[in-house]
Design goal:
Layout (H helix, E strand, L loop, with lengths): L12 H22 L6 H25 L3 E6 L5 E14 L6 E18 L3 E15 L6 E12 L9 E18 L3
Parallel strand pairs: 1-2, 2-3, 3-6, 4-6
Antiparallel strand pairs: 4-5
Helix pairs in contact: 1-2
Amino acid sequence: LLAWYRPPVRATAVVVAAAMLAVLGIGLLVGAFRGRARWLIAPAVVMLLVAQIASVVPRVVSDTAGSGVGERRWAPTTTSSSFELGAGSATLDLTRLPAGAVDIDASVGLGELVVIVPADTRLVLDGSVGVGEIDLPAQRPLEGADLDVQRTFEPLTTTSDVTTVDLTAEVGLGSLEVRRATS
């Protein structure tokens, strides 16, 4: 009989944590008059932290990236592409792009985004990380909150057909790394 029961309200992690915090709060209030409730302070503080994390993490993930969890390897071959990952590790491989102007948007809500740039490619980067790190070639990593970077990386080799990639990269919580391809 219980297997067929469907609750009328969807209980998210925030709702469950808030309900548990409310029960602990009521216990602390009753204990203030009856005594012996000091031991409820530690679980109440822990539950407060759980409720705060449960309310922030889904918002960071959904605001900056959409859906999907896991590991992704993106290798675009067209002049306009967009990629999203909710949580996990993503590698954006720019080595298969055609010559000319290319526009790419890539975002990861929670995790890391690694961008691989070939030696004959100009990269115009507009990158942001909500909380975490930005690691760029030949520069010290930036760490902290609300990180924004606008940089142009010129090609290391000179050829007649240069690919110019205009990349908008966003990471909500985690790291953004740009690397030059090894071959």
